[in-house]
Write a structure and sequence with these properties.
This protein is mainly alpha-helical. It has helices at about 5-15, 30-40, 50, 55-70, 80-90, 95-110, 115-125, 130-135, 140-165, 175-190, 220-235, 245-250, 265-270, 280-290, 295-305, 310-335, 340. The longest helix has 24 residues, at about 140-165. The protein is globular and about 55 Å long.
Length: about 350
């Protein structure tokens, strides 16, 4: 990163983060500083969607692993196609922050005309036609695994961004040329060659890839990041989520996000079977998983009584985001089967 840009690129993410105390790169605890250094080296700047996790270094490392190994690492799928998936998922999740960043990156890459790029975007957004689905299905198993990894990562990150960051990385009153400059900068950073492999030493080893994530196996670097995230996020959220709350969120993940989802009556009905003291955290977890774009400051504030520390808030929202990401990615992969395309 240009030395003139680095101070600004470090300061701006900290100004955008909400609900938790941002941790500056200067003077950060060693585990946080190590991840920050890798983010700056491989992503090109201290990306706010990663920096927002810093209150919990273990979750920070897991989120960075997911992003690095799925989107950034050089592999079987082209970076432009991966960026199309990132933007498509972000549109489906109504996450304008991530749509802005990854649409700009794709523009900055200036890829040659390739029908796979719009096909990947449409597939990721759940709007692909049969011809576009066949283009995705006919990719190599490794390329499909990488694109599914990007989809998983952004179903996760979109939800965290909706809770902890503003709607856009670019100020509303910024001059029009700022978007063009951002696209050039993001495209330039996206051309950095990032070798696949463990970006972060796993805290837990020997974990088997869960059956719903078996699609990651053809891309070992993606599979490693995914299994690491599964272990870390379950471990970190465990102390804050009762078995009943865990079951509630899992059972509600198939609920369609319509106008009623996220409303007070919907939340009251969904959590009615829980003890009163668990309902604020259940509201937070449910809304994060199912309709994070409808999150309110009031719901976060209510949950803070039961989640008094920043790392607890990050752990619970990260678990809920990842639980939803697993389900949504599985749904994207279902139409790629022969049965659906016959």
């Amino acid at each position: 990163m240009n030395r003139l840009i680095r101070p600004v690129a470090r300061r701006v993410p900290l100004q955008q983060i909400r609900h938790v105390r941002a941790i500056a790169a200067t003077g950060a605890p060693a585990p946080v500083a190590a991840v920050y250094a890798q983010v700056e080296r491989d992503f090109g700047m201290l990306a706010p969607p990663i920096a927002l996790h810093a209150a919990d270094p273990a979750v920070l490392g897991a989120a960075w692993c997911l992003l690095r190994e799925s989107l950034l690492a050089t592999g079987a799928a082209a970076r432009a196609v991966k960026e199309a998936v990132a933007a498509g998922v972000s549109r489906a999740n109504q996450c304008p922050y991530c749509v802005t960043v990854h649409s700009a990156t794709l523009d900055g890459l200036r890829p040659a005309a390739d029908p796979l790029i719009p096909a990947a975007a449409a597939w990721a957004a759940g709007r692909a036609d049969p011809a576009q689905l066949r283009l995705i299905r006919d990719l190599s198993p490794a390329a499909r695994a990488e694109l599914a990894g990007v989809a998983l990562t952004f179903h996760y990150l979109n939800r965290m961004v909706s809770v902890f960051l503003p709607p856009s990385p670019i100020p509303a009153r910024a001059p029009a040329f700022v978007t063009k400059v951002a696209a050039r900068l993001m495209g330039s950073m996206a051309r950095t060659v990032v070798q696949p492999g463990p970006a972060h030493e796993p805290l837990l080893s020997g974990t088997a890839l869960p059956s719903d994530l078996a699609w990651a196996a053809p891309a070992p670097h993606v599979a490693e990041a995914v299994t690491h995230a599964v272990s870390v996020l379950a471990l970190r959220a465990g102390p804050w989520l009762s078995d009943a709350l865990l079951r509630l969120v899992q059972s509600r993940l198939d609920v369609e996000a319509d106008i009623a989802v996220g409303s007070r009556p919907w939340l009251d009905g969904a959590t009615a079977g829980l003890p009163a003291q668990e309902r604020p955290v259940a509201d937070l977890a449910l809304l994060t998983a199912i309709a994070a774009y409808r999150m309110t400051d009031g719901i976060v504030a209510s949950a803070r009584a039961a989640l008094p520390t920043d790392d607890a808030l990050i752990a619970v929202t990260a678990w809920a985001s990842f639980a939803a990401a697993r389900r949504r990615t599985a749904a994207l992969l279902t139409p790629l089967t022969e049965r659906h395309l016959a």
